[in-house]
Each structure stands twice: as structure tokens, then as C-alpha cells.
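S.,

Sequence below, as promised.
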Amino acid sequence: MAFECPLCNSYTAIQLACSTCGTNLLDQGREADYYDDYSPYESIESVRMADGYSVDAKEHECPHVLACPSCMKSDVYLIEEWMI
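The prediction came back faster than expected:
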């Protein structure tokens, strides 16, 4: 079985509201892409071993940064991957 992140692969858009102001959150990409200049080019599996989330590989979740364009609040959300 293979799993893919629906946000990374543009299968769907995020539909969450900011808990502070209620504005729709915007996906800013995988959290791992912000680690350093080369992290966007690392394999997803190698990043998962060092990303600090102990269950993201086992639970098939992809950590994404979601940000509010109104109040500028941002946080990491674990996005459930889809089985393909």
C-alpha cells in the first residue's frame, strides 16, 4: 500500500479556520521544507526519521505549516495521508 499527502500532491485544499480570528488558514507547505536550504530536496522517508514526530510515518501523517493571513498565527498540523 502506498500513501500520499493530499496537500503535497494537490488532491485537495485545506479547509480549516483560524482558532483566533476565524479566517481560513493557508497551507505553507511541509514543515520539513523549512529546516534548512536543502531539506525540500531530501526524501520524505529520511526527513521523517529526524522530524521530531514519533508517529508521522507509522500513522501516515504529513506535518504541514498552516498560517492565518489575517492575524499571522501559524502552527503545524498533521495531515492524514490518503491510501492510493
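Helices lie at 44-48.

Coffee later?
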